[in-house]
Amino acid sequence: MQELNPEAKWSNFNSDNDVKELKALLKKISDRYGMSYFEILKRIEEKDSIPATAFTRELSPLESVVRYLKEKRLYKIKKIALLLGRSEKTIWQAYNSSKKKVTDFKFEPTEYLVDVSVLSNRRFSILELVVSYLKENYKLSYHEIANLLQRNDRTVWTVYNRAIKKRENES
After folding, report:
1. DSSP assignment of the chain, as one string?
2. Buried (b) or exposed (e) across 81-106, using 16+ Cβ within 10 A?
3. Is the pLDDT of residue 15 over 70?
4. Are 143 and 135 in contact (CB under 8 A)?
5. pLDDT at 6
6. 117 near 65, Cβ under 8 Å?
7. How many CB atoms lie within 10 A of CB 121?
8. What would the pLDDT profile of 47-97 be if each residue is shown by its tens digit?
9. Mean of the pLDDT values across residues 128-140?
10. Is pLDDT at 8 greater than 90 in this prediction?
11. CB of 136 within 8 A of CB of 146?
12. Is the alpha carbon torsion for 130, 131, 133, 137 positive or negative?
């Protein structure tokens, strides 16, 4: 069987009905949300994640996660509750509490993102999960993690070692 050259394989791409429908849908989404096609596709591919800099000294780790997902990702309370494996009431309470503590929720852009899926393990605190994720996935030092999370170096060390002991006790 003869293989098609690369150009022949794509020759009918733009006339394909599925491609035309996809382009129309992308245009509709672009108009609705004011995003470029590239931004839309990037958002579709992106995992549910939180920048490490979204954690602040003023908010608890749960409040930071909920506030980010609610205000920056525009997730509903129900979706956040499902993602984090917590009740809607807990999420609603964390969100309202965070709004009372911090009126202007800001954070610096960072390359260090925490995958939301790891935060649903209820045997560990949110802080234990975040610190462990940053330490093990990005190989950051305790000091680097402490700076990102606006915590003390010793606190980060203690939290990470507590998480390790919990994991060892599970085995």
Report:
1. -PPPPHHHHTTTGGG-HHHHHHHHHHHHHHHHHT--HHHHHHHHHS-SEEEGGG--SSS-HHHHHHHHHHHTS---HHHHHHHHT--HHHHHHHHHHHHHH-SS------S-EEEGGGGG-TTS-HHHHHHHHHHHHH---HHHHHHHHT--HHHHHHHHHHHHHHHHHH-
2. bebbebeeeebbebbebbeeeeeebe
3. yes
4. no
5. 59
6. no
7. 15
8. 788 999 999 999 999 999 999 999 999 999 999 999 999 999 999 999 999
9. 96
10. no
11. no
12. positive
Q: What single-letter amino acid sits at 104?
A: D
pLDDT top residue among 151 and 3: 151
Hey, what long-range contacts does 103-109 have (CB within 8 A, 24 or more apart)? 105/67, 105/68, 105/71, 105/72, 107/51, 107/53, 107/54, 107/56, 107/68, 108/51, 108/53, 109/51, 109/53
